[in-house]
Each structure stands twice: as C-alpha cells, then as structure tokens.
Amino acid sequence: MPDFVIDYYDHVRDAEPAIAAWQSAFEGRFRIDERALRSLALTDGPYRPGEHFVARRADQVIGFAFTQLVQQPNAPLHACLCALGVARPFWRRGVGRALLNTACESLAQAGARQVRLGGHLPRFFPGVPRSLPAAADFFAVHGFLIDSAAPVCDLIQDLSAYRTPPDVAQHIQRCGADIRAATPADHADILAFHAREFPNWQPEYAHVLDIGDGDDILIARDRRDGSLIGSLILFTPRSQPMRGDVLWWAELGEPLGALSAVGVSAAARGRGIGVALVGRGTELLQARGVRIAHIGWTNIPEFYVKVGYHIWEFFEVGGRNLP
C-alpha cells in the first residue's frame, strides 16, 4: 500500500507546501512564488483551470499536478498538463504515476479527449524543459508521444539598457504600417482580424479586451487604407497581474513583462511588419517599466533574436489521447 494519498489542491492551504515541493522537484530551477501559482490555479480566462491535485504523505505535500481545459474556436475541447512534479526524496515511489493517472481521469471526465504537456495562458511551461531529460523519459514511459525533433523555446531580454537595433528601427519606419496601442475604436477590428487570420488566438485577445487591458494590444494599420494587418499582446507591471502572461517573477526577476501572440495577416507578410511590431512592442515594454522581457512558446526564435532576445529554455512538446 502506498504511504501517500492524492487530494484536491486548495490554494489557501496548499500553496506554500506545494511551492516547497516544486523547488525540490525541479532542484532549485524554475522558481515560482505564490502569485504565480495563484494565477495558474485560479485564473478563469482565456482558458479555464482544470482540477488540480497534490500528493500528501502525512501532513506533507510531496507532489502536485496542475491542469487546464482549452476551448478554441471550431475545435474540440482539449486539456493541458501544466505542471507535474514530485519532491526529490520521493521519486520512484509511484507518486508521479498516481498524480498523472488522477489528473488524466479528471480531464477525461471533463470531456477532453487529448492532453498535451505544457499549458496555454496562464502558463509555466509550453512543454517539457529540455534541461530536465528525466521528465521527458517519465512521460514517454506513460504513453506520451514526445517530439524531440521539433522543440519550441522561450526567450528573454534584459531591457535595462535596451536600444532598438538600427535595422529594426528601419523596419518600424519603412514597413508601410502605423504601429500604436489599441483604443476602444479598434476593438471590433481586432476580434474580426483574429477570427479571420488567427482564430486560435482570438480567446486570448478577447480576454485582454474583456478585463480592460485593451491598451496592452499593439496594432499595425496599413498606411494605404487603414486596414488592420498585425497585432501583438503586451504584459507589463500595469497589466492585470492575474492574466498570467508570464509567471516567472521569482526566477527571472522584476519588473517582468512579456510579448505574445505576434501575428501579421497573410497578405501583408514579407514587409517587415512582424519585426516592426516586436521592436515597437519592446520599446513599449521598456517605457512601461519592464526590465526583463519574456517571449514564450515559439518555434522561430531567430525572428526575435533580430530584436535582441536570446533563448532562455528549450521545451519538447508532446501529448497523448485520454481514455
């Protein structure tokens, strides 16, 4: 008989011991704090939390599993295993397997038919950190298909002394688009643009608008006809913190900010508008008090390297069907 039980996570009761278990599980890497865990565990939107679980041995939390349910336009409900870990002294005792089985059963009961490793927003990991190879091995043993040949990555940049690279500044001036923060008059166009060009991102843009952070959306309008041809989302110290666009305050330092969901319409690509958006967005992050800027979940890091970002961590993506 196991000497532990699997229980539902309660944030008030379990946040502090779960953070201690997290630090042990990841051996001091990927540090988190209470507000980061609160964002992941409690934020409802743009995607809703699933059920979360802890493993207890007597009164000690020795493991955790956090899940998420994602409904995107014209797509079936799918699930995310946002984070799973076991405190180092309790490895190889069946704790991780029990947490994984309980989480997958819960997600299947909620109606999901697939689960992927890593989360959407709020998000810690977009996959399994490549620097933790034992984690990928664990999930592979338990039926997950891991795509080691096509990793994604997160990038960061210290903006303390940031200056827009000259070639990026030229893109901003010469791309043929006016780039600025959105106003209420732009909101309907933003939603229509994403419904047409990037439907998977529409819930994220709608959430930013719904909670009153509309000026965190940077848009590009064509100078010829005023049409909206690109956008991205900012996250800064003045944004609603529970949005959880980046949760690594404890690991990366403060003030922390992010850029995400960078998209240019198919008809306007090749004009440098994407680089111009990221360059202008980075300037705005700096102007709004961000020191460390984060970009998450991309498979084209070279695009952001042009603006001074560097790779922070690679992640291997994977998933499996649910019973």
Question: Per CATH, which architecture of the largest domain?
Answer: 3-Layer(aba) Sandwich
Instruction: Assign the structural class, choosing from mainly alpha, mainly beta, alpha/beta, alpha+beta, or little secondary structure.
Output: alpha+beta
Please trace the helix and strand order, writing H or E for each element.
EHHEEEEHEEHEHEHHEEHEHEHE
Number of E-state strands: 14
Top CATH class of the largest domain: Alpha Beta
N→C terminal distance: 25 Å
Largest sheet: 14 strands, mixed
CATH superfamily of the largest domain: Gcn5-related N-acetyltransferase (GNAT)
In which range does the helix fraction lie?
A: 25-40%
Characterise this structure:
This protein has two domains: 5-125, Aminopeptidase; 156-315, Aminopeptidase, CATH 3.40.630. Helix content is 31%, strand content 30%. It contains ten helices and 14 strands. Strands 1, 2, 3, 4, 5, 6, 7, 8, 9, 10, 11, 12, 13 and 14 form a 14-stranded mixed β-sheet that branches. Strand 4 (60-70) and strand 5 (78-86) form a beta hairpin. Helix 6 (187-197) packs antiparallel against helix 7 (202-210). The protein is elongated, with a radius of gyration of 20 Å. The model has no long low-confidence stretch (mean pLDDT 96).
Tags for this entry?
10 helices; 31% helix; single chain; Aminopeptidase; 30% strand; alpha+beta; 2 domains; 14 strands
Secondary structure topology:
Elements lengths: L4 E4 L2 H15 L8 H9 L5 E2 L3 E5 L2 E11 L7 E9 L8 H15 L4 E4 L10 E2 L3 H9 L3 E14 L7 H9 L2 E5 L5 H11 L4 H9 L6 E6 L5 E8 L13 H4 L3 E9 L8 H15 L4 E7 L2 H5 L4 E12 L2
Parallel strand pairs: 5-6, 12-13
Antiparallel strand pairs: 1-3, 2-4, 3-4, 4-5, 6-14, 7-14, 8-13, 8-14, 9-10, 10-11, 11-12
Helix pairs in contact: 1-2, 5-9, 6-7
